[in-house]
Amino acid sequence: MTAVSQTRGAARIHAAFAEAQAQGRAAFIPFMTAGYPSAAEFPAVADALLSRADLLEVGIPYSDPLGDGPTIQRASEKALDGGTSTRRTLQLVADLRVRHDKPIVIMTYVNPIYAVGPREFMRLAQAAGVDGLILPDLPPDQDIEIAALAEEYGLAVTFLIAPTSTPARVRLVAEACTGFLYAVSVTGVTGTREGAALNEVPAMLALARQFAHVPIAVGFGVKDAATASQVAQQADGVVVGSAFINAVRDGQDVGALAAEIAEGCRKL
């Protein structure tokens, strides 16, 4: 088993999971696309989520988000149309860091990192107070420099597994993660789902725990307190994204929804 990374970001992320566990909860990790519904309105939405979150996941808007469903795709399109770039995303995070001390992780596809330049991206992320990166389209065995640069700049890295991942793939990904391991609940893209979308989670987590040296969070398909509770009984963390973007789109109270889902993250 690989030693746990001791970078600044990894330590802060692991401490947040440990605090949630000590309180009898799975860590609550809401997601929001940077610059959505606008750059001016995003800070208030992020503040509302951070008031209940253990960690906040902020997505860099991207024009070709292959792992995201229509809800997050539309949010990215609107954010990009409003001028939210990769650099602007990091500035928005820096502004949040002035008001909040909770861990903030960036979800980004690899192309925005290379568009800025990997070292410059890591420098800007460190300066903004980012704690870690979630890299959905970068397999660890194809990563030439990103993870090493992230560690150099004190940032944790998180990679993804899915129900279709083989034991060999799960081991490879789990041992490469330094922040947390992101377990995708279903094969496919992000989004809220009806029915038994979470049935494959127990077997996937049982396999992942054989290799993981970091906390395991589950995302995709979690939309409310009931689905959050279902995941929280099994995982160390619960990631919720599309439900919050839908709430913002529909003019609903994001803070109230965050409070409801956070309560659902309690262990029974």
Description:
Tetramer of two alpha and two beta chains. Belongs to the TrpA family. The active site is at 57 (proton acceptor), 68 (proton acceptor). One of its GO terms (cellular component) is cytosol. The chain has 268 residues and is α/β, with parallel strands linked by helices. It has one domain: TIM Barrel (Alpha-Beta Barrel), CATH 3.20.20. It is built from twelve helices and nine strands. Strand 8 (216-219), helix 10 and strand 9 (237-240) form a beta-alpha-beta unit. The two termini are 30 Å apart. The model is unreliable at 188-196 (pLDDT under 50).
Class computed from helices, strands and strand pairing: alpha/beta
User: Mean pLDDT across all residues, rounded?
Assistant: 92
What's the CATH topology label?
A: TIM Barrel
CATH class: Alpha Beta
- Note the overall shape: globular
In total, the number of strands is 9
Spatial strand sequence of the major β-sheet: 5-4-3-2-1-9-8-7-6
Helix content: 40-55%
For the terminal residues, how far apart are their CA atoms? 30 Å
Cα gyration radius (Å): 17 Å
Count of all domains: 1
Pfam family, one: Trp_syntA
Protein name: Tryptophan synthase alpha chain
Keywords: Amino-acid biosynthesis, Aromatic amino acid biosynthesis, Lyase, Tryptophan biosynthesis
EC number: 4.2.1.20
Could you give a short description of this structure?
The protein is an alpha/beta fold and 268 residues long. The protein is built from twelve helices and nine strands.
What is this structure's SSE topology?
Layout: H1 8-22, E1 27-33, H2 42-50, E2 56-59, H3 70-81, H4 86-99, E3 104-107, H5 110-116, H6 118-128, E4 132-134, H7 146-152, E5 156-158, E6 160-161, H8 167-176, E7 181-184, H9 201-208, E8 216-219, H10 225-232, E9 237-240, H11 242-249, H12 254-264
Parallel strand pairs: 1-2, 1-9, 2-3, 3-4, 4-5, 6-7, 7-8, 8-9
Helix pairs in contact: 4-6, 5-6, 10-12
Keywords: Amino-acid biosynthesis, Aromatic amino acid biosynthesis, Lyase, Tryptophan biosynthesis
Pfam family, one: Trp_syntA
Function: The alpha subunit is responsible for the aldol cleavage of indoleglycerol phosphate to indole and glyceraldehyde 3-phosphate.
